[in-house]
UniProtKB/TrEMBL annotation:
Residues 237-290 form the HAMP domain. SMART domains: HAMP (SM00304), HATPase_c (SM00387), HisKA (SM00388). Its main location: membrane. It comes from Exiguobacterium aestuarii. PROSITE patterns: HAMP (PS50885), HIS_KIN (PS50109). Its EC number is 2.7.13.3. It is found in: Cell membrane. This is histidine kinase. It catalyses: ATP + protein L-histidine = ADP + protein N-phospho-L-histidine.
Length: 651
C-alpha cells in the first residue's frame, strides 16, 4: 500500500487531503455539540431572568397602582377606590409569594424578603393610618384643605417593636410615611440592575464559552494536524528537499552552466523522474556550454590580437563591448589581463567620447548603422584635438536572419595620414627647391654655351652657377641627414669644444655674408660643451642663417649665452618676421613651413630646424622658440655644461 501511494504524488496528496477532511469533520462535530449544549443552558437561564424581570415589573406596577388608588381614596373618600386597593393588595401578596417560592440564589431571596417586609409595613402601618384619616375627615373631626402628613401620622399604630432594621419608620415624622413607596422603588431598581448584571454575565459567559469552543476546535485540529505532520514529515522532507535541490541546481545552471550541482538521489514518483531528466539535461547543457565557451574565448582572443579597435553594440540592450585595442587607442589601461571575453565599456564610454573632436558626426554615423542599416560608408574623424586621425566602418551581426548587433571597427590612420602628408610636402618642397637651382644652373649654362660674353658677365654667371650648386648641395645634404637620423645612423662623436670659439667662428662667417645686420655676442670664454663639433656648428649655423634669412630688412642679431647650474643656455634673437602661435607649435616638424606670405616668398625645405632638434636631443639638450608675429624670434638651445679640465684629464 505504501509503495503504491509513493508512486504518484496525486495519490499522496489525496491521502493527506482525506485524512485532513476526517480530522476537520471530527473536530467540528465535537465542537458543535459542545457549543450547542452551552447555548441551551445559557438560553434557559436567560429565559428565567427574563421571566423574573417581567414579574418584578408587574409587582412594581401593582405597587404603584395600589398607591395611586389609595391616594385617590384619601383625597376623594370613595369606597370603590378602597376596594381596588384591596384587590391590588391581594395581587401583591400572590406575586411576592411567587418570588419567595422561586428564589434560587441569595439576591432573589433578599428581593423576596424585602418585598414581603415592605408589603407588611405598608399594609399594617401606612394603610390603616390613611383609612382612619379618611373616616375622621368624613366625621368632621379633621378639617384640612389639603392632606397633612403630620395629621395622618397621628393615626399610625403606636407599637414600634418590629425587629427589622433594613427599613426604619419614624411615626413622629409624617414624611416618612411615604418611605415604603420609595424603598420599594429602590428595591425594585436594585433587583432589576441585578437581573441585568446576571444577564450580562450569562451573555459574557456564553461568548467566552463560544471562544473556548473555537479554541478547543482549533487546538484539537492543530493537534491532529501536528500528529499528521509528524507522521508525514519524513516523506514531506524527502520530497521538499529534492524539489529544493532541483531549484538550487536550476538557479546555478541558469547563472553558470558550468557550476557544480548538488547530487540528487531520485525518488520513485514524478519528482524522481523530473530529477533524472534534470540531471541528463544538466550534463548535456554543460557539454554544450563548454563548447560555446571555448568558441567564445577563441573569438575573443582573436579579436584581442587585432590591432584595429572593435566595439560590438547589442541592439536590444545597447550594451557595448570592446577589444583591448580600443583601450590602447584611447590611451587607457586595459581593465583586465584576462582575454577570454570582450570588455564591457559602459563606464568608459563617456570618457572615450570626450576625446572625440566631432562627437555629433560620430553619433550620426553610428546611428545610421544601427537604426537605418547603412554599412556601405566609412567615417573619418579626429580625436585629442587633432592629434589622432581615425577611420571607422560598421558591419552587421545577424543570427538566424535577425539582426542582433553591429560591430564598429576603428583604425588609427594618424601615421598613414602624416606619412601621406609628409610625402606630399616632400615632393612639393623638393621639387620646388630642386627646380629653382637647377633652372638657374641650366639657364646660366645655356647662356655661357650659346653666347659670347665679356669676362665680367662670364664670372658673374659662373658665381651664380656655383651659388645655386651649393644651394642644391645643402638640400641634398639636409635630406641625407634626415635619412641618417631616421635610420639611427646619426650618433655623434663627442669631443670637448669651447663654446666661445665655436660661436665666434660662426658669427664671423655669417657677418661677412650680410651687410644689413648687426651682430651682438656675449659669452664667457671658459664655457665648454661636449659634442660633435661638426653637428654643433650645423645647429648654430642653421639658426644664424634663419635669423638672417627671416629678417630681410636687417636689424640686430643677438647671441646671448648664460649659465644656470649645469646647463648652458644659448639664445639667438633676431628682429625679423616672427612666428604665429601655430607656427611655434610645429616649427620643428619635418617639412613644416610657415603659412605667412612673407615666409613663403623666402623659401626653404622645412628640414633645418627638424635636423637641429634631432642633433640637440642627441647631445642631451633641448631646443625651443619664443616669438611674436612681426616682432622677431628667439631660438633657445640648452646644452649640458662640462668641465674642460676634467674632460682633458679623463681623455
Amino acid at each position: 500500500m505504501k509503495r503504491w501511494i509513493e508512486q504518484r504524488i496525486s495519490r499522496q496528496v489525496m491521502t493527506i487531503f482525506y485524512i485532513l477532511i476526517a480530522l476537520v469533520t471530527l473536530t467540528s462535530v465535537g465542537t458543535y455539540f459542545y457549543t450547542q449544549q452551552s447555548i441551551q443552558q445559557t438560553t434557559v437561564q436567560l429565559e428565567r431572568i427574563s421571566e423574573q424581570r417581567a414579574r418584578a415589573t408587574d409587582l412594581f406596577e401593582t405597587w404603584q397602582s395600589m398607591q395611586y388608588e389609595l391616594r385617590g381614596h384619601v383625597l376623594l373618600g370613595e369606597n370603590a377606590l378602597l376596594e381596588e386597593v384591596r384587590t391590588a393588595q391581594g395581587n401583591i401578596d400572590e406575586q411576592t409569594t411567587w418570588f419567595e417560592e422561586q428564589a434560587n440564589n441569595e439576591e432573589e431571596a433578599q428581593f423576596a424578603e424585602d418585598a414581603r417586609l415592605l408589603f407588611s409595613i405598608y399594609t399594617t402601618r401606612v394603610m390603616p393610618a390613611l383609612e382612619q384619616y379618611v373616616i375622621a375627615k368624613q366625621a368632621g373631626e379633621i378639617d384640612e384643605s389639603f392632606l397633612q402628613m403630620r395629621t395622618v401620622g397621628q393615626f399610625m399604630p403606636k407599637n414600634e417593636t418590629s425587629t427589622q432594621t433594613r427599613f426604619k419608620l419614624n411615626s413622629s415624622s409624617a414624611a416618612d410615611m411615604s418611605a415604603s413607596i420609595v424603598d420599594m422603588e429602590s428595591v425594585f431598581t436594585d433587583y432589576r440592575a441585578n437581573l441585568d448584571f446576571q444577564e450580562s454575565e450569562l451573555r459574557n459567559a456564553l461568548s467566552k464559552q463560544l471562544v473556548k469552543a473555537q479554541w478547543m476546535w482549533l487546538l484539537i485540529l492543530l493537534g491532529a494536524l501536528f500528529l499528521l505532520f509528524v507522521g508525514l514529515q519524513p516523506y514531506i522532507l524527502r520530497l521538499t528537499n529534492q524539489l529544493q535541490t532541483l531549484m538550487v541546481n536550476s538557479e546555478r545552471l541558469a547563472t553558470n552552466p558550468s557550476a557544480t550541482l548538488i547530487p540528487i538521489k531520485p525518488l520513485q514518483n514524478e519528482v524522481g523522474q523530473l530529477s533524472k531528466s534534470f540531471n541528463e539535461m544538466a550534463t548535456s547543457l554543460r557539454t554544450q556550454q563548454d563548447q560555446v565557451d571555448l568558441e567564445r574565448e577563441k573569438t575573443a582572443r582573436i579579436l584581442h590580437t587585432m590591432r584595429d579597435s572593435i566595439v560590438y553594440t547589442e541592439l536590444k540592450t545597447n550594451e557595448r563591448f570592446a577589444n583591448s585595442a580600443l583601450f590602447d587607442l584611447y590611451e587607457h589601461p586595459i581593465p583586465s589581463t584576462e582575454r577570454g571575453s570582450l570588455y564591457p565599456i559602459a563606464m568608459y564610454y563617456p570618457m572615450f567620447m570626450n576625446q572625440i573632436d566631432d562627437k555629433e558626426g560620430l553619433n550620426q554615423f553610428t546611428r545610421r548603422a544601427k537604426e537605418e542599416g547603412m554599412f556601405d560608408e566609412t567615417f573619418t574623424y579626429t580625436m585629442q584635438e587633432g592629434q589622432k586621425t581615425i577611420r571607422m566602418y560598421a558591419e552587421p551581426i545577424d543570427l538566424q536572419n535577425e539582426r542582433v548587433g553591429v560591430i564598429f571597427v576603428s583604425r588609427d590612420i594618424t601615421q598613414e595620414t602624416e606619412i601621406n602628408q609628409m610625402k606630399t610636402e616632400l615632393v612639393a618642397t623638393v621639387s620646388h627647391e630642386l627646380r629653382t637651382p637647377l633652372t638657374s644652373i641650366l639657364g646660366f649654362s645655356e647662356l655661357l654655351k650659346s653666347r659670347q660674353l665679356d669676362e665680367t658677365k662670364r664670372e658673374r654667371y659662373l658665381e651664380m652657377i656655383a651659388s645655386e650648386t651649393k644651394r642644391l648641395e645643402r638640400l641634398v645634404s639636409d635630406l641625407l641627414d634626415v635619412q641618417k637620423m631616421e635610420a639611427g645612423m646619426g650618433t655623434p662623436e663627442f669631443k670637448v669644444e669651447s663654446l666661445y670659439d665655436l660661436l665666434s667662428d660662426l658669427l664671423e662667417i655669417h657677418a661677412g655674408s650680410t651687410e644689413q645686420h648687426l651682430f651682438h655676442f656675449d659669452c664667457d670664454e671658459t664655457l665648454f660643451v661636449a659634442g660633435d663639433p661638426a653637428q654643433l656648428r650645423q645647429v648654430f649655423s642653421n639658426i644664424l642663417n634663419n635669423a638672417i634669412k627671416y629678417s630681410p630688412d636687417g636689424g640686430n642679431v643677438t647671441v646671448d649665452v648664460t649659465c644656470e647650474e649645469d646647463t648652458i643656455q644659448i639664445a639667438i634673437t633676431d628682429e625679423g618676421l616672427g612666428l604665429s602661435e601655430e607656427d611655434m607649435t610645429r616649427i620643428f616638424d619635418k617639412f613644416y613651413r610657415s603659412a605667412s606670405e612673407a615666409s613663403k616668398r623666402i623659401g626653404g625645405t622645412g628640414l633645418g630646424l627638424a635636423i637641429c632638434k634631432e642633433i640637440v636631443q642627441l647631445h642631451g639638450g633641448t631646443i625651443g622658440v619664443r616669438s611674436q608675429l612681426g616682432e622677431g624670434t628667439t631660438m633657445i638651445v640648452e646644452l649640458p655644461m662640462v668641465d674642460h679640465v676634467n674632460e682633458e684629464s679623463s681623455s
